[in-house]
Design goal:
250 residues; globular; 3-stranded antiparallel beta sheet; single chain; alpha/beta; 2 domains; Rossmann fold
Amino acid sequence: MDTLLDITNIDLIIGQRQILNQVSLQLKSDEILTIIGPNGAGKTSLVRIALGLLQPTSGQVIRRPDIRIGYMPQRLHLDPTFPVTVKRFLSMVGKKQRDQVVPRLQEVGAVHVLDVQMQSLSGGELQRVLLARALMRDPDLLVLDEPVQGVDVHGQTELYQLITRIREQRQCAVMMVSHDLHLVMAATDRVICLNQHICCSGTPEAVTNDPAYLDLFGPQTVKQLAVYSHDPNHRHDNCGNCCKGGPCAR
């Protein structure tokens, strides 16, 4: 697998505050990497550095020269006095992508909201529209900052299944930030536990048994996690069912 993103020994200092300390990571194609950690751990700052929106104080960030990145932000602030439909919102990505509006909404299961005002969307519908927007440029890497923000538990499970299915069908990489440990652990290949520095990293099983993880989140949280070993050889159909038979146990 080729490397899409290589971050080496980055520090981020803002004012007198150390936000990130000697953080290194690599992201390969066709990999889901999830960044977890408490509030204030530097997760969003790390994502912004990966995207090139924020420069680290020191260290090196190398992106594959031809990489296409789709970004789904943590929050979207819409002016309530400026109504805009989903179709119009997605068309703002660019003239070349306008013919992709309907196919991308179909891909995320949200074509029914095409002519709905953005301000009228439910939490789950809004997240699907933002995901459709991130897919408009056919990305090699999807960067998702809290992709299930404002969505109920059932909707969160569906969104994580959708993200996994998109990765499998498109063969793209995913970098995801999440607080939803009990759900996201079942939808990722590799986990980085961040608290200004990388406390631990590895497979979901390895991380949840790491003493640094236990210290950060506590044994009670670990007991509640539904950890599963991701099988890279299985695939899903368009309804999200595992091709090995029956709904995929995610």
